[in-house]
Amino acid sequence: MELQQIRYFLALAQELHFWNTAERMFITQSALSRQIKALEIELGVQLFERNKRSVKLTEAGAFLRDQWAPLLDEINRVHLQARKIHEGAFGTVRIGYPGSIAYGFMPDLITSISKALPELKVDLVEPTDISFEQLLLSYQMDIAFRRDPAENPALQSEWLYSEPYALVVPESHRLTGQNFTGMQDLKNDKFILSNLAQTTYYTAGLRQIFEDYRITPDVRIETDFGGMVLGLVSKGLGVTILPYSYSFGNLPNVRFIPLPYSTNLYVTWRRSDYSPVLKNILKLVSETAARYAAKGS
């Protein structure tokens, strides 16, 4: 017994007409008759009562129609889902990201994913710089956006775009974009920063800024979470340096002053991951990043 025979049976059970059913199923009437006869022989059950004027379901045939119709619908649904998985349009993708891209790049990317792959579930994670490689290698994450390229040879990174660093001060602060002359203007200010002792490209960039101006920041609060940093700056507890994309959040009571320094954004994934979902997502990542690279050029 083949699945196609069941499809022929269910179509005939609906039409109750061999010629109409044959046209609907794109086979000849004689081929349809052979398939139904073969199914009856296989089952040892008469499915239809036939004469020259009509075709009727037997009681056994009506029973099988009622049982097989929902099963065939379920099989078709499963086949469709399997095809979507094969094409990378169904499943789950786990994405890690830094808080700085939560206000621009990530919403744009997720919008693109939702439009192109509406049945794909997206899990978003904001890990620390220390844990993202471990999360990728342990399959707890599929893609990570970071300010640093991956160091582990089992991972692959691709540069997406650069954006400027910005000095972030409370709205009431004395410095503005017009009167700011350099970081030496802040030698007596309190800073809220990531731990500058961390060995990441991001913190190396921050250290370079202070070294170029030959100042040692008076760091009073340390945190790696940009959203918290912005909240503290808005309360007047200090100043900070963050990627300019944090400004897209439009947080009140803070002012962003662009600096002549930039930081990069990379996407990282497992080298051994050849899944269709990853391929589709990386394509959308490249398209979204191209728009941001154009803005910065």
UniProtKB/TrEMBL annotation:
- Pfam families the record matches: HTH_1, LysR_substrate
InterPro entries named in the record: LysR_HTH_N, LysR_subst-bd, WH-like_DNA-bd_sf, WH_DNA-bd_sf
Q: Which UniProt keywords apply?
A: DNA-binding, Transcription, Transcription regulation
Report the residue ranges that make up the HTH lysR-type domain in this protein: 1-58
Q: Indicate the family of this protein.
A: Belongs to the LysR transcriptional regulatory family.
Q: What is this protein called?
A: LysR family transcriptional regulator
Q: What is the native source organism of this protein?
A: Pontibacter amylolyticus
